Amino acid sequence: MTMKKNKVNCLHIGPAKCALDLGDGSERGEYIDQDYILHVLGRPHRAVNLMYCYYPLDKGWPARASTLAMKGKDVGFAWDYAYDDYFPYQGGLEGDTNGEPFRSMRDVRSHGQDVILTLTVDCAVSDEQLVKVTEDLRPFGRLMLRINHEATGNWFAFNKRYTYQQVADFYVRFHNIIKKHAPHIKTILCIGDDHPDENGKMKYEDEFAEAIKAADIWSTDTYLALHWGWPFDVAEPGGNSHKRTGNSETLRGFNFEYRRFISRSNGTSRPFVVSEFNADGDVTGPFEQAEQLADFYRRLPEEAPCITGVTFYQFRDRGRLGLETEDPNNSAIGCAQPVLEKYKKILNMEPYLPVMTTGGTANFPMKLRWGGSEDSDGLAVFLNFEQNPVFCEVTFSGEDANLNLMMEINGRWFYKKPGVKTIDLVSAFFQKRLTGKTEIPLRIFAPPPLGVNDPSQGPDWEINYYAKIQNPPELRIRYAPAMPQVE
User: Fold this and answer.
1) What does the pLDDT read at residue 194?
2) Same domain, 308 and 422
3) How far apart are CA 306 and CA 253, in angstroms?
4) Coil, helix or strand for 49?
5) Pair 57, 20: CB distance under 8 Å
6) How many domains does the chain have?
7) Among the four residues 81, 421, 432, 481, which has the most C-beta atoms within 10 Å?
8) d(Cα 192, Cα 221) in Å, to the nearest integer?
9) Is residue 149 part of a domain?
10) DSSP assignments along 375-397, one per residue
11) Is the peptide bond before 314 cis (omega within 30 degrees of 0)?
12) Are residues 288 and 383 in the same domain?
C-alpha cells in the first residue's frame, strides 16, 4: 500500500488553549532523554523546562555547588550551599556550547518541543557576560528564558546576596540585553504570590514594577503540596517543613495574581503560566497525589482561564515530585507512580491539545517549516483503514530517510531520527483500537535534526527551520498475521 493513493494536505499546528510543559532534571533528579519520555507518555509537550545556574564569579565555579568542599559548613537545607545547586551553565565567556545545557536543549528541540531555560544568575555578572549567554541561546528558536525564578523568595543565592530591588533591576537589565541581541527569545518573570498583603498587593510587587512591565511572560510557581525540607528530613504529621493547599484556594490565587500583574502593567496583558506545579507525594501519598492533580487539571481551564501554560515538575524525581521516582539502586531506572497514568489522560484532554488545521493539497517536493511547537507547517496523509491493523509501518526512502521527523497517528506521537527509514506505528492502535472502517490522518512535522536553527536558511532563521520532503512516504498496513495460527 503506497501513500500515493492517499490524499495529502498541508497542515498547521497551533497553540492549545492551555499548554502543557514538563520539567526534566533539577537539583532533585537527572535529565531523562526525550526518546524515553515520548515512549512513556505518547505525545510531546509544548516545551521542556531545564534548570541551570550561572555563578561564574564564584570560587569553585563551574563545579556543581553540592560537590564543592564545604569545610566547616553545616548543610541542613537544599539551598545552604555556596550557590544554587542546579546543574552549572557551561556556556558564557568562560565556556562553550558543547556541554550542558546545550546537549539537552538540542535533544528537546529535535523532538518537536520548545525549550524553557530556567537560569539562576549572579546579579553581579557583566553585560559582556550576559551578551555572550544571549548569543549562546540565539540559535535555539523560540526559547523561553526564566531568569532568577521565585525572585520574591529568600532561598536562592541571588536573593541572599542582593536586595529585591537589585534582583528586579537585574531582570530588566538582562531582559533588555536579550531584546537587543535575540528579540525572538521570550523572558519569563516568576514572582507570583497568591496571598495579598495588607494593601491587597503581591509580595514585593512595588520593587518588581518595571520588571512586570518588561517581561514577555508572567509566571508563578505553585505546589498543591510541598515538602521543602527534602532530603534533610521526613514529612510527618505535625512537622513544619511541608504544606498542603486545596485546589479551590490555588485556582482563586491564580486569578488574584493575574489581576495584580495586569494592574501593574497599565491594563495590558501577557501570557501567564505556572512554571512549576505538582502535589508532593511526600505530603499527600501517591494515591491522593494522583486524585488531587486530576481534579486540578480538570477544573483549571474553566476556573482560571488566565493560565496559558502549566509545567509539571518533574518527569523523574529522587523524591516524590515526579511522574516516576528514581530507583535508589539504579539511577537509570524510573518507577512509575499512580499520577503517571492520570497525567497521560490529561495530556489528551481537549483544552491541553495543540490545534491542528488542515489546508490545501500538498505538492511534492514540499517545504516543511518548523517555527516551534505552537507554530509549524507540516503535512497530513489521510489513511483509510478497513479495521484495526495488525501491522502499520511507515517508510521513508532516498533523501527523505535523512529527515528528522515527528509524526502523530491515532493520538500517539512517534520520532524518526535522520538515517532511520522505517518506524513501526502499530502501538498507536494497542489501547485506542479501531472498530471498523475509518479515515485517520498521519501527521508529519520536521523539527531541526540538530536542535538548532540554521543561519544560512534566510533572514527568518532565528524563528524558523526549513526541511524539504521529496515524496510521500510508503505505508505497510496489514489486517492479519503474515501466517495463520497453527493448531
Assistant:
1) 75
2) no
3) 11
4) strand
5) no
6) 2
7) 81
8) 7
9) yes
10) SEEEEEEEEEESSS-SEEEEE--
11) yes
12) no
Which of 441, 438, 439, 442 has the alpha carbon at shortest distance from 423? 442
Residues 139 and 199 in one domain: yes
> Which distant-in-sequence residues (6+ apart) come within 8 Å of 47 by Cβ?
19, 21, 22, 108, 113, 114, 115, 116, 144, 309, 311, 373
Q: Are residues 338 and 381 in the same domain?
A: no
pTM listed for this prediction:
0.96
Same-domain pairing of 326 and 361 = no
Give the end of a domain, one of 335, 352, 369: 352
Q: Same structural domain for residues 413 and 268?
A: no
Alpha helices in 270-337 (DSSP H): 281-303
How far does CA 432 lie from the centroid of its chain? 26
Q: What are phi and psi of 468, to 5 degrees?
A: -115, 130
19-57 b/e (C-beta count within 10 Å ≥ 16 → b): bbbbbbbbbbbebbebeebbebbbbbbbbbbbbbbbbbe
Cell numbers for 391 = 501491522
Choose one of 352, 372, 387: the last residue of a domain. 352
Look at strands 316-317 and 324-327 and give their pairing: parallel
Q: Exposed e or buried b for every residue in 336-350, given b needs 16+ CB within 10 A?
A: ebbbbebbeebbeee
316 inside domain: yes
371: CATH? 2.60.120
Do 246 and 378 have their domain in common?
no
Same domain flag for 366 and 235: no
Q: Which domain holds residue 303?
A: 17-352
Residue 370: burial class (beta carbons within 10 Å; 0-12, 13-18, 19+): buried
Q: What is the CATH number of the domain that holds 157?
A: 3.20.20.80
Task: Mark the ranges of the chain whose per-residue pLDDT is less than 50.
Answer: 1-4, 72
DSSP single-letter state for residue 2: B
Q: Please, what is the angle between helix 247-264 and helix 281-303, to 10°?
A: 60
Q: What pairs with residue 385 in β-bridges?
A: 438
Note whether residue 442 is domain-resident.
yes
Cα angle 408-455-189, degrees, rounded to a multiple of 5: 70
Measured distance CA(407)–CA(106) in Å, rounded: 18
Contacts of 277 (CB under 8 A, 6+ apart): 221, 222, 223, 224, 310, 311, 312, 313
The reply to whether 483 falls in a domain is no
Contacting residues for 332 by C-beta, under 8 A, at least 6 apart: none
- Say which DSSP state 177 is in: H
**Beta partners for 277?**
222, 312
Cell of 60: 569553585
